[in-house]
Amino acid sequence: KKTLAPVDGYLHVGPSGAGHFVKMIHNGIEYGMLQAYAEGFELLNGKKAFNLDLYKISKLWGQGSVIRSWLLDLAVNVFETNPKLDGIEGYVEDSGEGRWTVAEAIEQSVPAPVITASLLHRFASRQPESFCSQTIAALRKQFGGHGIKNK
User: What domains does the chain contain, in order, with CATH numbers?
Assistant: First the structure.
C-alpha cells in the first residue's frame, strides 16, 4: 500500500505528544534557518558595487555547499522569477511553533538565541513604525547628540 510519506519520512518517536513536540522543535529550527538565509541574501543584495546575481549565487550554493538545503532550492526558485522581490512586503507571520519553541527553551533554561531572534524579527517585520526605535533615537540624541531622522 502506497503512503503519502516519503521512504523513511516518518518515525514513531515516543509517547503521545512526542511527535508534535519533535515537529515543534523542527519548525523552530526552520525559523532560524530562514533567518540566516535571509540575512545572508540581504547582505549580498546590499553590496551594490558588486551587482551580485542572487539567483546564480543561490544556485551555486546548492551544488555541494555546506549550506545546501531544500530551503536554498526554494531561494533559487524565488530569485529566478523575482530577483528583487518586487511586490512582496517584508511582513512575516508566525504560526505559533516558534513561540512554543522559545517558551520550551525558557521552561528548560536552554539558551536558544537564534530561534528567539528569528521569532522577534518576525514581530518587528509587522510594525510599520516602531515606538521602541523612535524612543531609542530620541534618547541617543539626548545623551550623545546623535542625529535623528525626522518625518
Answer: 18-52+89-144 (1.10.1040.10)
